[in-house]
Amino acid sequence: MTKSELIAQLAERFPQLVAKDADYAVKMILDAMVDALARGDRIEIRGFGSFALNYRPPRVGRNPKSGDKVLVPEKYVPHFKAGKELRERVDLGES
User: Fold this and answer.
1) Distance CA 52, CA 63 (A)
2) Rounded to whole angstroms, how far apart are CA atoms 64 and 68?
3) Higher pLDDT, 34 or 18
4) Which terminus of the chain faces fewer neighbouring Cβ atoms within 10 Å, N or C?
5) pTM of the predicted model, to two decimals?
6) What is the rounded (10 degree) CA torsion for 43, 52, 2, 93?
7) Binning pLDDT at 50, 70 and 90, where does residue 95 land?
8) Which UniProt keywords apply (predicted)?
9) Is residue 53 helix, strand or coil?
10) 3-state DSSP call for residue 60?
11) Count of beta carbons in the 10 Å neighbourhood of residue 7
């Protein structure tokens, strides 16, 4: 599902919500989540899952084209862990 499909489905489920307002709501939620992760905060949505940052230490990698060693710097990568309720619903194939 793409962001535009999510917006369309939200507007369809809630007829009182204009598509423009649904678009704004989705963008605001995603912006708030990105801002929280950029600050290093953890996001927890009960029944759905949690978003956090995982630390990747610096390491020596290889350039696949030349085979030369390359220093890969440390970084933080976003990580999503599905909640129990989401895992169970996906396992049962529920929508």
Assistant:
1) 29
2) 8
3) 34
4) C
5) 0.80
6) -90
7) low
8) DNA recombination, DNA-binding, Transcription, Transcription regulation, Translation regulation
9) strand
10) strand
11) 20
